[in-house]
Automatic annotation (TrEMBL):
Catalytic activities: 5,6-dihydrouridine(20a) in tRNA + NADP(+) = uridine(20a) in tRNA + NADPH + H(+); 5,6-dihydrouridine(20) in tRNA + NAD(+) = uridine(20) in tRNA + NADH + H(+); 5,6-dihydrouridine(20a) in tRNA + NAD(+) = uridine(20a) in tRNA + NADH + H(+); 5,6-dihydrouridine(20) in tRNA + NADP(+) = uridine(20) in tRNA + NADPH + H(+)
Protein name per UniProt: tRNA-dihydrouridine(20/20a) synthase
EC number: 1.3.1.91
Active site positions: 101 (proton donor)
Originating organism: Salinisphaera hydrothermalis (strain C41B8)
Length: 336
């Protein structure tokens, strides 16, 4: 759609999905070495953890991670507004409400996908947050839950959050089963329904909308942008992170040459050195780098060396060098 660039906030045209245990500060710093413009997200942080836990740790991020959104899990409007203000004060570019996670732990906390059944509560959270912050407030949701999966149900949900002032709706194009399926199965078993998200976007032309779920290549992402304003890529960006290298040129009109995989490794050295000096392990960084040489000569050896050696006591940059030595150096073409 020709107006998608006008409607879409900076960075959100292509984004990397928030994922628990994966989109850590180390992963985000690494991903930022590959793409300068794609919007990145934190892992979901609950309002209780942010208010009563280690607030500084949850809000900590490197300046290079921007554009960056904080994803919140919660259902109390006052708490959500307070946490949105914390996010804005900490310098986050956006704050997102998780209304898509189907795990039992999240349901027990009365947030995540189960909150689709209470659209007015989500709308109240959006309104309370918008009243406190000037940064965008977005909602990440599913197309339905359990047997509440009609288009009318989804349309009513979108109507309420739009009227509350949400700046963007990010729709995972699967419904969530809240009982009987694991979170992993909820990413795979319910069928994708892109057409329903496309219909929703057409029905809400003034509400920027991004699509998520099952998008594994940039050609598919480009096709989706004929119907929606933004595309969120999840597990593929993690499994094969260098697949995101063409994003800046293709979707953000940035003609700066993409870094090679070797450039990315070199750019990580200072970060890894600081990370280790702070008492952290090498493995907590390199686990995010395992797929960097996916499908490349020596890629399996790279992965094996990092997997076997990075968790050893005292492991340092020499492990990176050993893994890199197993990758056949080559002149890599700039991604198209």
């Amino acid at each position: 759609m020709t107006d998608s660039i006008r409607r879409n906030p900076p960075g959100a045209r292509v984004s990397v999905a928030p994922m628990m245990d994966w989109t850590t500060p180390a992963q985000r710093y690494f991903m930022r070495r590959i793409t300068r413009h794609a919007l990145l997200y934190t892992e979901m942080v609950t309002t209780a953890a942010l208010i009563h836990g280690d607030t500084a740790r949850f809000l900590d991020h490197h300046v290079d991670e921007h554009p960056l959104a904080l994803q919140l899990g919660g259902s109390d409007p006052a708490d959500m507004a307070h946490c949105a203000e914390l996010a804005a004060d900490a310098g986050f570019d956006e704050v997102d409400i998780n209304v898509g996670c189907p795990s039992d732990r999240v349901q027990n906390g009365a947030f995540g996908a189960c909150m689709m059944a209470e659209p007015q509560r989500i709308a109240d959270c959006v309104a309370a947050m918008k009243a406190r912050v000037s940064i965008p407030v977005t909602v990440k949701t599913r197309i339905g839950i359990d047997h509440q999966d009609s288009y009318e149900f989804l349309h009513d949900f979108a109507t309420r959050v739009a009227e509350a002032g949400a700046d963007r709706l990010i729709v995972h194009a699967r419904k969530a089963w809240l009982s009987g399926l694991s979170p992993k199965e909820n990413r795979e078993v319910p069928p994708l329904d892109y057409a329903r998200v496309h219909r929703l976007a057409a029905d809400f032309p003034d509400l920027p909308m991004s699509i998520n779920g099952g998008i594994v290549d940039l050609d598919t992402a480009a096709e989706q942008l004929d119907h929606v304003d933004g595309v969120m890529i999840g597990r593929e960006a993690y499994r094969n992170p260098y697949s995101m290298a063409p994003v800046d040129a293709r979707f953000f009109d940035d003609d700066t040459p993409a870094p090679s995989r070797f450039d990315v490794v070199e750019a990580m050295r200072d970060f890894i050195g600081r990370h280790l000096a702070a008492g952290n392990t090498l493995q907590s960084v390199t686990r995010h780098m395992l797929g960097l040489f996916h499908a490349q000569p020596g890629g399996r050896a790279w992965r094996r060396v990092l997997s076997e050696q990075a968790n050893r006591p005292g492991a340092g940059l020499e492990v990176i060098d050993a893994a890199l030595a197993r990758v056949a150096p080559a002149d890599e073409p700039t991604p198209a």
